[in-house]
Design brief:
This protein is mainly beta. Helix content is 14%, strand content 54%. The chain has a domain at 59-194.
Length: 195
């Protein structure tokens, strides 16, 4: 009898396994419910594109116009014009502006009474800093002018020489734009940028 109970217990256990397997499997003709497959999350790491600095490799010239007072007094061309080249270089801490050049003037008025001549020679040194941005930037400049001038008047029975020597300094700020300008009494500076 013990063996019959054991067999009956085994049959009942097998029957229970079969029933539970059938309950879990889908019925014929019905489609199985898909199990969602996890999708891999792709993270793109983008490095920002560096913003170009307007100061990098910037060069150009400053058109310097200086009023020559004694020339204007007698009707000669009143303005001396010089073009001072400059470049911008990076020294790691900033963008340094450097440049230099001459401004020269010579004109003579000849009349029946004699001559009136004006000669001026200036040496101009440009220094400063360029502060760049993608959309613009600024040049902060110091323009140092030093030189001499000679006015000579020659007339019947008269000879006059009027020398002058000196220096002058301008502190100017320009947006980095072609044609940006600054002016004051007796001078004007126009920025020309090499693109």
């Amino acid at each position: 009898m013990n063996k019959k109970i054991k067999r009956l217990g085994i049959l009942i256990a097998v029957f229970m396994v079969v029933v539970s397997v059938m309950a879990c499997s889908p019925a014929s003709g019905s489609s199985p419910t898909p199990t969602p497959t996890p999708t891999a999350l792709v993270v793109e790491i983008t490095t920002p594109t560096p913003v170009p600095d307007r100061c990098d490799g910037l060069s150009g010239e400053l058109e310097l116009q200086v009023l020559v007072g004694p020339a204007d007094a007698v009707g000669l061309e009143p303005v001396a014009v010089g073009n001072i080249p400059f470049t911008v270089t990076s020294d790691g801490a900033g963008n340094i502006v450097e440049g230099s050049g001459p401004v020269s003037y010579q004109d003579v008025l000849e009349k029946e009474w004699g001559t009136y001549s004006v000669e001026m020679d200036l040496e101009v040194v440009v220094s400063g800093e360029c502060v760049g941005e993608a959309a613009g930037g600024e040049l902060n400049l110091v323009i140092e002018m030093s030189g001499e001038q000679m006015v000579e008047v020659r007339a019947e029975g008269f000879q006059g020489d009027y020398p002058w020597a000196g220096s002058h300094e301008l502190n100017l700020n320009f947006p980095i734009e072609e044609g940006a300008s600054a002016q004051g009494e007796g001078w004007a500076v126009i920025l020309h940028v090499n693109e």
